[in-house]
Amino acid sequence: MTSAENNRHWEECMEFAVQTARRAGQVIREAVKLDKCVTTKSSAVDLVTETDQQVEELIISTLRDRYPSHRFIGEESSAAGERCFLTDSPTWIIDPIDGTCNFVHSFPMVAVSIGFAVKKELEFGVIYHCFEETLYTARKGHGAFCNGLRLQVSKEKDVSKALILTEIGAKRDPETLKIFLGNMEKLLKAHAHGIRVIGSATLALCQVATGAADAYYQFGLHCWDIAAAAVIIREAGGVVMDTSGGPLDLMSRRVIAAGTPEMADYIVQQLHSISYERDDHDTDCISTSC
Fold this sequence. Notes:
Layout: H1 3-31, E1 38-40, E2 47-49, H2 50-66, E3 71-74, H3 75-79, E4 91-98, H4 100-104, E5 111-118, E6 121-129, E7 134-139, E8 144-146, E9 149-150, E10 163-166, H5 174-189, E11 194-196, H6 201-210, E12 215-219, H7 223-235, E13 239-241, E14 254-258, H8 261-270
Parallel strand pairs: 3-4, 10-11, 10-12
Antiparallel strand pairs: 1-2, 4-5, 5-6, 6-7, 7-8, 8-9, 12-14, 13-14
Helix pairs in contact: 1-2, 6-7
InterPro entries: IMPase, Inositol_monoP_metal-BS, Inositol_monoPase_Li-sen, Inositol_monophosphatase-like, Inositol_monophosphatase_CS
Pfam families: Inositol_P
Protein name: Inositol-1-monophosphatase
């Protein structure tokens, strides 16, 4: 396909992703009212419900029927043992319910996240806040939007005037908790206005895109938590990078996002790293920077 044809095709893909995310969100809104069957994955706090699995199947089957030659990376299918890696093929990166613990407790910070990569480069992202029915979208080179209104990140450079968001990953051993709390302590001692944990990485990252938060960092999230949000933040004028200060590695399970490079660089200097196994650890294919 020509560049113009590709452009139209990716636009059509994003429009279909929006329809699919809204449909998935409706299923989640109905399911939250019902009794839930809750099991665990990597740890006692890494929760999964039958709704996670049903919604992922709905999203992937809907997209696969439309785009049979595309590849898919999904949170629940990866947890079930499917290989998690990027190739040059068009690839959908899906979190059916981001904020499963919130969903289990009916805490209304839950989202559907659908990212899309081509030749290992993120092309667009769609994030749907299921309970507020708020839709975040972005395509590379075309801007970021919330319910059709263009987004712009904060331009704050001074951490002492910043609101920072984070999440704790699934590891809760004493050493991990010590590092996690120590990182928060460093930023609070730098007089950050506050640090928030809302239980949904994708929605927290969207707050950076809207300018409501100045930065976000985390160790232990997955590629499906980052993919869609990274496009949205970048298209809103922000930066997304590795916690080392280098380019974002989608499979590394760590990220810093901020409205300004100065804010991101400052946070890089403060953080002590928490080690997590890469998303692509069991494959021969290692992703490039996105």
